[in-house]
Amino acid sequence: MNDVARQAGVCKATVSLALRGSRQIPVKTRDRVQRAAQKLGYAQNPVVAHLLSELRRDHRMPRRHTLALFNAHGNRDAFTANDTIPTWVQGCRRRAEVMGYGTDEFWLHDPGFQPRRLGQILRARGIQGGIILGGFNSNVLPESHAEIWAGFACVVAGVRTHRPTLSFCCVDHHELVVEAVQKTMELGYKRPALVIDQRIDRLVDGRLSSAMWLAQSGLPMEARVPAFMRGEAAQKDPREFQAWFQQFRPDVLLTYYKQVKKWLGACGTRVPADVGVVMLERLASDEGWAGMDQRNDLAGEAAVDRVIGMIHNREIGPPEIPCATLVAAHWVHGDSVRKMAT
Fold it and tell me: In total, how many domains does the chain have?
């Protein structure tokens, strides 16, 4: 713009007005500026020009917009009193702040907030969309809140939902397991096995078990240990796990359950001297454990970016084609595994 101003013999402000066709600038001056701009190959950035136009048209003080954080967990205090959910919330809040948004929290099971009343509150506060968090026990959203999903831009941070299916952001569960197996193989383990619960696997559309099948497909047949899929039952009665372990004798376990260490101890098996244990969701508090950091805070950030994009594009209600944003986990070494002798 400086070059155009010098070429036309005017100031930058005149160039700006002339290129917008402002009648404040005489026709001859406008023509001279436009010829200078053409000669120098100057072109306005259309995105910036549109933004500046909007700002000029609205002289009010900028208003801080707000996103809703919907707590779908059964516990009203899950945003603070849960092992994993606070990390998701932290990521949402952090990204919202960077993007100029505030956040308001709503518990979907609050008996004082009937869906219609919740919708009224959201609209009264100028909230156009939000992120659904904590729905880890079911991937079916409450049918009672259908008018919320239909009337606002909503994204799930966590497992894929059904009825309706919304866009969602979470760890790449398939890559998570494949990467964990690869890391154990690099340490010299030969017989990795998955220890989870079938309900958890179904919540993520079978991506954990299918990834384990793929990871084991390159192993000799005798090294392909079948998964133990009754983790929740084993928490009540570990003998079922112990019978499975005694039968198949894997040398490293991939699991969500820290109780595995105690279950193994009852079999006279030491961690990591006799068997390794890898946490599929290693939390910041899991000091000493090897495992995969799922970076749920980054998934929360991604959910904020997606819902803001939907708001800007006026994409309200369940999308015709839901999108998934998958975040790669990364390996954290710990004392629950060891380098195996070659």
Answer: 3
